[in-house]
Specification:
Helix content is about 40%, strand content about 15%. By secondary structure, the protein is of the alpha/beta class. It has a 7-stranded mixed β-sheet, sandwiched between helices. Strands 8-13-14-15-16-17 form a 6-stranded parallel β-sheet. Strands 9-12 form a two-stranded antiparallel ribbon. A hairpin with a 2-residue loop joins strand 6 and strand 7. The relative contact order is 0.10.
């Protein structure tokens, strides 16, 4: 009888700035792992349950796990949602104490000893998993010693065994196309605002920079020292790309078979190689796909590409929703965060080129706030800079240090991290102590203030967006403003209630006042 491996993406709370449909997009990790297993291990049944697009809550998921009765169950999550995977493993062990629980992804790859000692985790697949999961399942199915499998960690009695890390896959073209057929493809982003009828796609892995707050480049980097639980972290950047021909295989499937109208490129930095970008755009234009693209772009590379003519071609090919990680507004702060080659004037120039030459482009930027060095003035300067560069939609994130980043290591060592339980973190609420007398509550209030100022104090851009002749941009603007208006009204209502509550109880204003992760209606069902 064939053994069964069940992969699960668990129910989880929602990011507050976008709607539910935009929150739960196609995850690439699980179908990528499933595809590798399907190609290499024929006597294993692989299934995937993606709860979010199907609105499967915990009660229903528990019943499905019981009915499936898998021999192995796998889940992997980013840091702020790792507790959801832990809950899944506890449920699975409750039904079958012999089920083998396999964890992966960002949090578990770094937090090995804590995960194996404190949670119902049997084995951890560390970092890039397509080859490791094949080797692991082959060992489990054939009762082979797990210590021979590179890239895993497991518990043997009271001992934690960490095998040597597996070298990263040098040629990404060797990977099979993700098993999209195992996913509920037609249920992703059906009513999306930012990403309507979309699918996630990957052209590259890794990055070329060393931003101290970013977990992506360290996850895909050359990890010379990786025992962060014992204070060891040494990583250098490592960047790989699939060939254009290989990428277009996936583009064709997503556009032709699944009729996707928007592709979300998961690459931490999409525009590293202008020759590759140019060739990819040529192929997309040749096929005449009526599809838009959302991408993470570096501003310095975008300025280079504007001079080369590549940026113009990107827009013609549908890359009309770029997101630039601007982060801060001055050289000193970029240097502090180890973000290199960013200059205030050149970032502004890129945004103005897009504004003046390509009005159809929805120019989005992210900024990170609430660092120990921040003051009210430095945070207000970010709002002024967002207006100065003429960004369509700036978003200001209180920094959330996560395991595997240099910032997390520094903040833990220096005792700046005030919320150490990551399941209590909300992405939108400050976590760090401040050197300039600002409380976390005060920083959250300033962050909310600069978010509103940066949008509503730029009326010319606002009106251009609302009445844009380009349907996609006009739709995004109107929906974003509608969402923001509802949030602001909710905040005003909460402020009134909380002030009344505080007068009665003389207690602190609770976190409900701020933007926090939201619980879907179906989460417990």
């Amino acid at each position: 009888m064939r053994k069964k491996l069940l992969f699960v993406r668990c129910p989880k709370y929602m990011w507050p700035w976008v709607n539910e449909s935009d929150n739960f997009l196609l995850p690439l990790g699980l179908p990528a792992l499933a595809a590798s297993l399907r190609v290499n291990i024929k006597d294993l049944e692989v299934k995937i349950i993606d709860c979010a697009p199907l609105k499967i809550g915990w009660e229903r998921l528990a019943q499905m796990v019981k009915e499936e009765n898998p021999d192995f169950i796998g889940a992997g999550e980013e840091a702020l949602y790792h507790h959801e995977a832990v809950k899944l493993f506890q449920i699975a062990k409750g039904y079958n104490k012999h089920v083998v629980t396999i964890a992966g992804g960002h949090y578990f790859s770094w937090m090995v000893e804590k995960s194996l000692r404190e949670y119902s985790v049997d084995i951890i697949v560390r970092f890039e998993g397509e080859e490791t999961i094949v080797s692991l399942m082959d060992a489990l199915l054939n009762n082979r010693d797990l210590s021979t499998v590179e890239g895993i960690a497991f518990k043997r009695g009271e001992q934690i065994v960490k095998t040597s890390l597996r070298p990263y896959i040098k040629n990404l073209d060797d990977l099979p196309v993700p098993a999209f057929d195992l996913m509920p493809m037609m249920d992703y982003a059906k009513k999306g605002i930012f990403w309507p009828v979309s699918a996630t796609i990957e052209g590259s892995r890794g990055c070329i920079d060393t931003c101290s707050y970013c977990a992506l480049w360290t996850y895909w980097g050359n990890q010379k020292k990786h025992d962060i639980e014992n204070g060891e972290l040494e990583v250098t950047p490592f960047y790989r790309q699939k060939s254009v021909a290989r990428v277009m295989e996936e583009v064709d499937i997503l556009c032709r078979k699944y009729k996707r109208r928007l592709l979300l490129w998961a690459d931490p930095t999409f525009n590293v190689n202008p020759k590759w970008t140019n060739e990819l755009c040529d192929e997309i234009l040749k096929r005449e796909y009526k599809v838009e693209h959302w991408v993470f772009l570096r501003a310095d590379f975008a300025l280079r590409d504007a001079k080369l003519g590549v940026l113009d071609k990107m827009v013609r090919a549908g890359f009309v929703h770029p997101l630039f990680g601007v982060e801060r507004s001055c050289a000193q702060e970029w240097t502090q965060l180890k973000k290199h080659n960013y200059k205030k004037d050149s970032v502004r120039e890129v945004f103005h080129i897009l504004r003046d030459k390509h009005p159809e482009v929805f120019r989005q930027a992210t900024f990170v706030t609430s660092f120990p060095f921040d003051t009210e003035k430095s945070m207000m300067n970010l709002a002024k800079y967002a207006i100065d560069i003429d960004c369509d939609f700036p978003v200001f994130h209180p920094i959330t240090p996560t395991p595997g980043t240099y910032l997390y290591e520094d903040m833990v060592k220096e005792n700046y991290l005030e919320e150490k339980d990551l399941k209590e973190a909300y992405w939108e609420y400050p976590l760090l102590k401040n050197d300039n007398g600002l409380t976390r509550k005060k920083m959250a209030e300033i962050n909310r203030k600069i978010q509103i100022i940066s949008i509503f104090c730029n009326p010319k851009t606002l009106l251009k967006g609302i009445f844009s002749p380009y349907a996609g941009k006009r739709f995004r603007y109107r929906e974003v403003l509608r969402t923001l208006f509802l949030k602001v009204m909710a905040i005003i209502s909460l402020i009134f209630k909380e002030k009344v509550l505080r007068r009665k109880n003389k207690g602190p204003i609770p976190r409900s006042l701020f933007f926090i992760l939201e619980k879907p209606e179906w989460y417990d069902s």
